[in-house]
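#struct-help
A.M.: can someone run this one for me? Single chain, 299 residues.
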Amino acid sequence: MSEQSPHHGPAEVPVDVPLQDIIDSPAETVETPDTDEPVEATVTDRTPVKRNGFNRRGFRFATPLGDIAIAIRTPKQQPVVPKWFDPLGLTDRAIDAAKTGLKLATWTEEQLATLVKNRLEALDAAPRPLQSAEAAPESTDSLHTKLGRLLDRALDQSTSGSQQELYHRLLDQLVADEARIVGALSDGTSSPLVNVHSRSRNQVVLQNACLIGRTANVALPHMVPQYVDHLLSLGLVETGPEDPSRKADYEVLMAEPMVLKAIKSASRGPLIARTEKLSLSLSELGKGLWAAAVQQDGP
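D.P.: on it. C-alpha cells below:
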C-alpha cells in the first residue's frame, strides 16, 4: 500500500484488499476516475462492492454460528477529527457504528410493532365461541305452569316468608348509592326536594332534585334525581309537602348548579320557571325493609 503524505490526498486502495486489512487500516477513500462511465469493483467473498464516491469500512463479529462480516458504505466526506489528531480514523468509525446501531434499533422496533399489531388484529378477527344451547337456561314452562307454581307457593308460604321474599327482591334492585339514601332517611328525618317546571310549555325540566345526596354522601351526586325516582317507583320512599323548618336547607338546594341550570333553561323572558318544593322521607315499606335488613340474626 502506498504511503500517504500529510499534504496530499488519500492513496488509491486496490480492489482485492482483504477485509481484515480494511478493518485494521484507517479509513480510506476511493478516488473517482475522470470517466463518464461508472466503475464497478470486483465482488468477492471477502471484499464488499466498491462504488465511486463512497468510503467503505469493514467489521467482523464472532458469533456461535460463525464470524459475521459487515461492510459499511458512507458518502465520501471530510473526517470529523483531523488526521493528525486521529490518524486511524477511530472517530469516524465510531460514528458509523452508532448510525448502524440506531438503524438496527429502529428496524427492530418496527418489526416488534408490526408483530404486536398483527397479533391484536388476529385476536379481534378470531371468532368468539357462541354460548351453546345446552348452557343457556331453557324456559319451556308455559304461563299457566308458572302461575300455578306461584299460587302453590303462596299457599305454603307464611306471612313472614312472603315478606322476606319481597324484601330480597327489593334489595336485588338497589345499587349502593340508593342503599345509602335509604340509610340516611332511616332515622325518620326528611330531606328537601325540588321540581322545576317550565311555565311556557308546562313541562317538568328537573324532577326530584334532592339534598339527600349530600347527606348520604353518594358516589355519584349527579345521579341523585334518578336514584330518588327509582326509589319512588319501588315504593321505598315518598314525597310530602314542604318542611318550613328546613328553610336554610331549601336555600342550599336552590343554589345547587343542577337546579340553577334547570331554572335558567326553563325561564323564557319575563316568565320565570316555577319551582315546586317538597320533602322526601322513607315510606312504611322502606322502614320495614331497613328494620328487617339491619336486625341481627337470632342465636
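A.M.: thanks! DSSP finds ten helices and six strands in the chain.
D.P.: also worth noting: The domain at 163-294 is CATH 3.30.110.190 (Translation Initiation Factor IF3).
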